[in-house]
Amino acid sequence: MARWNPKKGVLDHEHSHFWRHRLVDLEEPNLMRDIFPYVEVPRIDFDHKLLPIDPAEDIFITDTTFRDGQQARPPYTVKQIETIFDFLHRLSGPNGVIRQSEFFLYTDKDRKALEACLAKGYPYPEITGWVRAVAADLQLVVDAGLRETGILTSVSDYHIFLKLKVSRRQALEKYLAIVKAALDKGIRPRCHFEDVTRADIYGFCIPFAMELMKLREESGIDIKIRLCDTMGFGVTYPGAALPRSVPKLVRAFIDEAGVPGRLLEWHGHNDFHKVLVNAATAWLYGCSGANGTLLGFGERTGNAPIEGLIMEYISLKGRMDGVDTTAITDVAEYFEKELGYRIPPNYPFVGEDFNATRAGIHADGLVKDEEIYNIFDTQLLLRRPVSIIITDKSGVASVAYWVNNRLRLKGDQRLDKRHPGIVKIHKRIMEEYAKGRNTSISNEELERWARRYLPEYFVSEFDKLKERARSLAAHLVAEVVESAAIKSMDPEMQEPVLQTLLELNPFIQYVYVTDAEGRKITRNITHIVDRAKYDQAHVGEDLSDRPWFIEPMKNGKVHVTDFYTSRYTGALCITVSAPIRNELEEIVGILGIDIRFEDLAKMEEMEKNGRSWTD
């Protein structure tokens, strides 16, 4: 049988009824041990058949940040999901480059997040659901008012026999039943062919897909198929064989099962470092949808990173299609600052060093013209100026370049290489290499030296740290003054509580209690290394003239001082104080906590790097 192909202008061969693929039901699973031996690295075999590319007419991205992406990190809050969804909308643009985003539907938080994002009224990404192959789950989709849902339909014998404990025919019947139930409710099903790159393509997957296309024709409702490379086994090599060949998988579903390319999606994992190229290859061979997550979050090694898919899309299409690529930088900053995720420095497009060079000759080229060594105008497209990795070969001009980019100084604000602070930083760098150093200078080191020699340019950062100190200490002191032991105004009961507070919070330098007259009633509670420095401080000392005493006594509120130099230790400190009240709410004393700025800054840096104080 032949059918006219208007796109190619020839007759295409189409299998007759007698030649169509049928389900091959087995008693034992076919685990393809010659390709997947398990005790060794999987094999890649070839059938030497080459396929020409045949790109999909409409390529797009679909998102699973809130489904697969959440399975690789602590769950997002409703507010976080809203914010991230806004980023996806910006990346999608008005033409729906990111066409859809799938959501969990099972918990109250899931549903609240779904409702909040639906309320935004964005045309793109369209919100879809995800459910198990269980009829009862479909009601969640109906209740949410969604038009489409993903349905988990595992297709490899590993899943059918070893996980589900059923035969191929039983699995097929179960899957078709849930699809029919979805169609009866007017829901557009998207069947997730889990573990397709280890599946029997012609013995199960293609017959299953053919049955789905029959249901599509009967119902008039599109049925989508997501090809899930669950273990990252997909390969793009010319002549590679099924089931691992991405081109042959896509073409098998289109040519053999009759699935329109617009109804196919590729969903990959990065177990073998091929997740992005596999997705782009699926596009090139006729699959319209490439599924991914922001920053590649996903089970185990993760999914195709959406920021990477965006760049591939633009590269293949040759146009932006309304995509706001600067949203990629905003996503990265949000994940680092708000979610506490540490992005690897060399991560493409968003890592701290992704557009940096460390070779001296390259750095010299960048100073002269950044286009020589930059992949594209990263300032224009990502709001990320090109950067330099500093070594002893970099020169003073390179140091000035690094500082100006770090501080985002423009025009007349930019520092000249002869600026005294720049010269001092360069001198400090050369001293390192004079001592025998043979590694590049880290951004952390440069940042530290820039703060030391150019302090006037870091006032805002300093203010942020002060605010962090105020917030942290105010919370601590407000909690402690409610303790029964502290309220007792009995020093013997108070001091163990204060000692525990000190030990749990190493950034605290000194903690004490005064009575309502301002006289210190507790002994010196401080770290053992500082104990001798506080010899002058004694029980009964009159502190009633201190602002940290006067203000809480006056207004009954927690008081935070500005930074000052401690007269005992000489360290830069901040004091937080709060009133102690009795049962009648009368102020009977003041609790004071001195915090050492250096220790607080150290703690802040450790938290940014994902470490704790005790590491």
Automatic annotation (TrEMBL):
Top-rank lineage group of the source organism: Bacteria
PROSITE patterns xref list: PYR_CT
Keywords for this protein: Transferase
Domain (Pyruvate carboxyltransferase) ranges: 59-329
GO molecular function: transferase activity
Transferase in keyword set: yes
Pfam families in alphabetical order: HMGL-like (PF00682), MCP-like_PDC_1 (PF22673)
Assigned protein family: Belongs to the alpha-IPM synthase/homocitrate synthase family.
Name of protein: Isopropylmalate/homocitrate/citramalate synthases
Species annotation: Desulfacinum infernum DSM 9756
